[in-house]
Amino acid sequence: MALPITRISVAWASSGAGAAGMLALLLAGAIAAEPAASIAGEAAVGPSAAVRGPLPAPVCESYRGLPDGFGPGRAGQPNRAGLVHIAGGTFLMGSDQGYREEREVHRVSVAAFSIDRHEVTNAQFAAFVRATGHVTVAERRSAAGPAGSAVFVPPKSGAPADAAYRWWVWVPGADWRHPSGPGSSIAGKDNHPVVHIAYEDARAYADWLGRSLPTEAQWEYAARGGLDGAAYAWGNVPRPNGREMANTWQGRFPQLNSKADGHAGTAPVGCFPANGYGLYDTIGNVWEWTADVYRPGHAPDQVVNPLIATREPAAVNGDGNAADMARVIKGGSFLCAPDFCVRYRPASRQPQEATVSTIHVGFRTVLNR
Fold it and tell me: What is the pLDDT of residues 354-368, one digit of tens each?
């Protein structure tokens, strides 16, 4: 069974980050909130997906990061490169076995849509920036402080394990081109998911293609791959036959990552098995933005094509401006471990401050036509 997850205090180590910075990391998707109530894990219950083989390592490693035909939408016609069509349907959204914010389980119907086969890559985002001149939020200096973004810095050997948010540091100069700060680069990582992307940046990219960001319901429906009610995107066993199915953290967090999955940080897209809809990395690798404003739980009622963008303003973070409100992120990341942030599941959800970017949050897009 899953190890218990305990609440931890927040200590924000930063340079020039104040209260907003502290909130940002509370919302950064690596928080261990309340104990998870027996997250489905070790026992196989119900359906389990046939394990599809991953792309051969030379393919995912050598992929240039650009789907064939990729480019901007033109003359009112969206670009469809790299999309997978998902037939509409009805599914059970949420989980009563996970964290409190995943409840209540309720039936949701979504219309047909198309979604990126994999997370948006550095190569894709670079093409967008070259075409538009877009400057990301992390690259802009503001009255609050220098340009920069949040970076995970593992504790040194012997450091106290309870100093949780000292692991997160606001690094001036960290951005999508320099993931760990000045001196780092994405050279040779065209096929890795782009990170340090704020909500505004993801929206701008989607608009350029004539697309949108997925709603939370669309994202979860797609991530489940047709396995309604399963704990994971591939079934109910976290590691079928001992096989790593996603890029997450293996070992004791944050002191030791055994890298049993072959990766310490982000992995090239498409190196782990696809789900039942042929989508890669919906679980792990990086958290993904959705269009929904966050609220701490689901309504129990059945809904059709839900988008929670304006409801319950008191339950979201921000100043009331919808553009600044915390949004739902989904899927977990390479920093999710069995003993911390057990959120590498389709039902998992977290708030992320819309104006803040981090080293483990990216996105994918949808086309609603």
Answer: 999 999 999 999 999
